[in-house]
């Protein structure tokens, strides 16, 4: 009897090992290129940290490509399967006559993520105080710059006439340029804006996200051919993302900060919590992956206002919500 018991245990162990190996082999790797590493993308890191992608049989190979142009180039050259970047980039590619258009399939953020930072402390800020100032804006043609100009015009400020607008500084160098003395005001993402405030280098006076309304600011996108050939994997990816979005929605900033801290090792967890709360309070994190038509039209209105819209593109041409809708089910 003892012999049979040992034999049974050995066979069970062998079967378990084979099953484990088989499961590992079935895990599909999807290469994701993110435009920057930012607390603004908290739900993505929650999905990674909480194992939501792995639960769906997906392994995410995440690379930071630092900038919209580089991210889109990486996707177009098959250096990545999926890109996390502003939806405007898909419009730029489509307008150049792409045979295999880039399709937006899941939304991550639904407002602008930048803040207006003043060099000097302002007790009672009003937008007209920017008139006559030097404003260090974001790279021309990108969503931050277009939203920045859109908001200025909304407050009756002509970006070309009412202030000195600087737009020739690379995205990665904008914060350093401001810290070195360039500009009276600067448009910055978090956590840089809050770090500057902590260090006395600047003061957050307004939110571009609050001012500009809802837009598909950052979305997951892929080539149309890739979506067709990998439908099941994209479904799984989107379902994991939706789980993370719901988790972010139902947990407080402290819990979210603790979950995503491994992706921001050089940032104090208290600062991460502060930034997450700021983004949550202004509704920056999309609560589901569906990019709706109103947001798409608002995006193109902002692009048109900035004279950066090559041509109007119909919502159904570059947006596929089927994966997002299945994820919700």
From TrEMBL:
Compartment(s): Periplasm
Keyword entries, A-Z: Signal
Pfam families linked to this entry: NMT1_2
Keyword Signal: yes
Origin: domain of life: Bacteria
GO cellular component, one term: periplasmic space
Regions annotated as coiled coil: none
Gene3D superfamilies the UniProt entry points to: Periplasmic binding protein-like II
Signal peptide: 1-20
SUPFAM superfamilies hit by this protein: Periplasmic binding protein-like II (SSF53850)
Stated family: Belongs to the bacterial solute-binding protein SsuA/TauA family.
Protein name, entry field: NitT/TauT family transport system substrate-binding protein
């Amino acid at each position: 009897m003892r012999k049979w018991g040992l034999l049974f245990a050995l066979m069970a162990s062998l079967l378990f090992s084979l099953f484990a190996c088989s499961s590992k082999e079935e895990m599909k790797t999807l290469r994701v290129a993110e435009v920057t590493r930012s607390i603004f993308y908290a739900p993505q890191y929650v999905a990674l940290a909480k194992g939501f992608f792995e639960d769906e049989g997906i392994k995410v190979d995440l690379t930071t490509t630092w900038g919209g142009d580089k991210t889109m180039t990486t996707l177009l050259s098959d250096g990545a399967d999926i890109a996390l970047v502003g939806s405007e980039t898909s419009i730029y590619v489509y307008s150049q006559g792409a045979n295999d258009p880039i399709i937006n399939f899941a939304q991550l953020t639904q407002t602008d993520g930048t803040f207006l930072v003043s060099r000097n402390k302002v007790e009672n800020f009003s937008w007209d105080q920017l008139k006559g100032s030097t404003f260090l804006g974001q790279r021309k043609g990108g969503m931050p710059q277009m939203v920045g100009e859109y908001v200025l015009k909304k407050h009756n400020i002509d970006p070309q006439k009412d202030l000195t607008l600087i737009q020739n500084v690379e995205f990665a160098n904008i914060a350093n340029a401001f810290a070195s003395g360039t500009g009276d005001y600067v448009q910055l993402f978090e956590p840089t804006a809050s770090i500057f405030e902590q260090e006395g280098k600047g003061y957050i006076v307004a939110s571009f996200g609050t001012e500009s309304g809802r837009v598909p600011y950052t979305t997951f996108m892929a080539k149309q051919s890739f979506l067709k050939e990998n439908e099941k994997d994209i479904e799984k990816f989107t379902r994991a993302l939706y789980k993370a979005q719901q988790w972010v929605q139902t947990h407080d900033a402290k819990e979210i900060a603790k979950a995503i801290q491994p992706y921001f090792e050089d940032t104090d967890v208290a600062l991460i919590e502060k930034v997450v709360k700021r983004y949550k309070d202004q509704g920056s994190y999309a609560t589901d992956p569906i990019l709706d038509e109103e947001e798409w039209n608002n995006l193109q209105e902002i692009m048109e206002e900035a004279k950066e819209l090559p041509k109007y593109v119909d919502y159904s041409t570059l947006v596929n919500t089927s994966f997002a809708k299945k994820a919700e089910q």
